[in-house]
Amino acid sequence: MSRRVLVIINCSRRKSVRIELVKERLGLVPGFDLEREDEYESALSDLMRPALDMYDGPEFRILRRFRSCVDVFILSARYGIISGERRIIPYDAYLGSTNETVLSKWMAYGNPDMNELVSGRWDYVIIRLTKTYMRYFRRLVHDPCGLGSEIHIIAGKGRDLNCGNVIYHYVRGPGDSQSVLRRLLAETCPSISNYSK
Questions:
Q1: What is the distance between the alpha carbons of residues 175 and 190, in angstroms, rounded to a whole number?
Q2: Are 151 and 145 in contact (CB under 8 A)?
Q3: Model pTM?
């Protein structure tokens, strides 16, 4: 019997769709204005992608290689908690440039996959969130320690969760975190054990 594996990661600024295309079409780039989502989806329907394909940072490239054996949830600055398979529009937003009012916007319009995340129970959980995103994640998910039997946190320093089932992997930078993510995924997904850079 295979293990159920969950990865929680924050969004990346780099998108697979050129943001200039969005600006040409709308005259602006969507950010935290989630209340206009229907309007944007209509105008940008041909540019929408599953979140795992829309975000194009290095860690997302690794995750795409393992998508067949992991469930991915993303803490998005625009949407809150979303599944990696949820179709989204290209946008430009960063939690470090806002304040906690974004939480109320997420509660009104966002977090479409929150129930799926908190009602699941995984055997193995990998959390890769920056310090800023972890702070918001802890406000949204009231019992992160209950998400899985074994939780691995890839972080720069500090202990963001105090659970008996957490293993910390301290990293010094993006390249280091990508290496740890790749190693953890290779260990949990034997069907893709021949994965290399």
A1: 23
A2: yes
A3: 0.92
